[in-house]
Specification:
- It is a single chain.
- This protein starts with 13 loop residues before the first helix and ends with a helix.
- 37% of the residues are buried.
- It is globular and about 55 Å long.
- Helix 1 packs across helix 6.
- The longest helix is centred in the C-terminal third of the chain and has 32 residues.
- Helices cover 73% and strands 0% of the residues.
- The chain has eleven helices and no strands.
């Protein structure tokens, strides 16, 4: 099978060109991010580890209150690591067009690639952090159960959700610069409104149904099911998956309607 470089430009399909450009831009992002860093990869996992350590200390040592499941550190990391992917990608999307404005205007590749490269690069960082989660699970005595087969499904749904939200945020920030700060506030609220430091089952019963309409609830349910079978709730997963697809559809619509205006504005 011929490699991409061996295929003539006129013979390359639009999807092949898009995929190749996406991978090149993602590689560039990762190189720039870690080329001047001594610790490199470890910075991508240090933040969630510090946050997990703080919440573990607060809830298990200071307040000694039972939330989530034991081992609590694994319960935390199973949601904190994917949260860092979502939070990091959406935060970067607020500057996706403003930071690369000259390059975006001078290239003819589909502009959605400037959002998807952020989703992919942050997703690669998340995947690279999974061995850390497994190590904590081994040393804390958590067992990996057969529901771990749904881990790739969680990654897929989260990629769809993150891309959808990113495609909404990235162009709108160009017209409404204050939206960048608003997104930061929304993400901070969403952190506590999502089952990260607690389980959905810890919420009052009257909130269980509404929690399903936070797509991250279903995604985190799938991740945690690898170690805690009781966390898997297919109703929450189904609603979350449907909403993720809806966000992607809305994102593509918003992006297509604003693309020309964005190019004029930047």
């Amino acid at each position: 099978m011929s490699s991409y470089a061996q295929v003539r430009p006129e013979q390359r399909t639009p999807f092949a060109r898009y995929r190749h450009s996406l991978w090149l831009l993602t590689q560039r992002d990762l190189r720039v991010r870690y080329s001047t860093s001594v610790l490199g990869y470890f910075w991508s996992i240090l933040d969630p580890l510090v946050m997990a350590g703080i919440y573990w200390f607060v809830f298990t040592v200071v307040f000694k209150r039972s939330v989530g499941e034991d081992p609590y550190i694994v319960f935390l990391l199973a949601a904190l690591l994917p949260w860092m992917w979502f939070n990091g990608a959406i935060s970067d999307c607020t500057r996706a067009f403003l930071r690369e404005s000259k390059l975006i205007r001078s290239t003819r590749i589909p502009r959605t690639i400037w959002v998807n490269r952020l989703v992919l690069s942050k997703g690669i960082e998340f995947i690279a952090a999974i061995p850390v989660l497994i190590l904590f699970a081994v040393f804390s005595g958590a067992t990996i159960n057969p529901d771990a087969v749904f881990f790739p499904l969680a990654i897929l749904i989260q990629a769809v959700l993150t891309a959808g939200v990113g495609l909404i945020v990235a162009p709108l920030v160009v017209f409404f610069r204050d939206l960048e700060r608003a997104v930061k506030l929304i993400l901070r609220f969403l952190f506590y409104a999502s089952p990260i430091i607690y389980a959905t089952s810890d919420l009052p019963k009257e909130l269980h149904f509404w929690a399903a309409f936070n797509p991250l609830s279903g995604i985190f349910s799938l991740y945690r099911a690898a170690f805690f079978p009781g966390e898997l709730d297919w109703f929450i997963v189904a609603v979350g998956a449907a909403m993720s697809v809806a966000f992607l559809g809305i994102g593509l619509l918003v992006f297509s309607r604003t693309e020309r205006a964005v190019l004029k504005e930047i």
